[in-house]
Model the fold of this input.
Amino acid sequence: MTLDIPEVRIDWQAKGFWQPDGEVTAAEFAAARHTLFDGSFTWPLLVVRLPSVQANIATMAAFCARHGFSFAPHAKTTMAPALLQAQLDAGAWAMTVATASQALVLRRLGVPRVLIANEVLDPVALAWLASQTDWEVYLQTDSVTGAERAAGLPLLVELGHPAGRTGCRTIEEVVTVARAAGDRLVGITGYEGGLTDEAAVDAWLATLTEAAKTLSAEGLLPEEVIVSAGGSAWFDRVAKALEGDWLPGHRLRIVVRSGASVTHDDGFYRERTPFNRIPQEGALAPALELWGQVLSTPEPGLAIVGFGKRDAPFDEGLPVPDRDGLTVTKMNDHHTYLSVADGVPLAVGELVRFGISHPCTAFDKWRLIPVVDDAGLVVDVLHTYF
Done:
């Protein structure tokens, strides 16, 4: 299955690309085999490393296959069609989105099966979703109102946890919402990523399985049941809790939605990836890097680099310089403050490479992103739809 990816053109509007005159297609740009430092770019610039992306996609596909899971990676991490295509080519069962607008993008691209990991209440969006009869789309709900509004659409009831975001807080609420969904109920879902320790995650997963068993005992589940969980921080615990035949009388499809794994990072997920706990099952590699130029060294121990909050994520940790003795201390819109240790040489005009923390808020700051191979040659250009 090949997605219908629109042709992308690069011109003066493309941040980071230096195309002051005329335009070229992304395919033409990639065919020219540019490097990052041949004058085709200016700074700052976000870059994707292709070998790391390829390895990450293969690692997650292998993990899901070993545990008998279906993979529906969260498209909202990248909203980049080329990366979605690569994940589908590696065997992803579906793609996950957060909003009806993102679902519309994936529909137009030709993604055949989509999970909306959120409650959709807008009647305009719901009417359109219901009209797409040759497309598989699944919604989730934690309320009777949501179940009733999503008439005609397949639903997963959502389990949450205290102080979390959405989701029913009790099994009794799960049953109530499931009854409102009626024969449109296809399973149960939830998100454990907001929990901070293994014991809490395991307890929540135990409640998830208990809720599924309760729904089965009440006669509310179909023969094939979707059970979905698994952000990018706890999918090892999801595997331990949900693999196997634990719901007699039903065929289980366990769907993992980990999205940040496609590019990983040098901060938040580097510290929290489940592969730190299960290294025998694989590893992920950071695939995103941000290049910035030193604009000023106004006083000893301080350097100012020419990128900021408009260019790099900062919600789950600051960018990470790739050399010792440098530390990012704060960011403005277009300036980053570097603490420079004694004896570390750093000159005005010098380029510094940074890793990022939290890919989900990196991609949405860049419409076009060059993809480079191990030799540093540009081999593709990603286009994001945010």
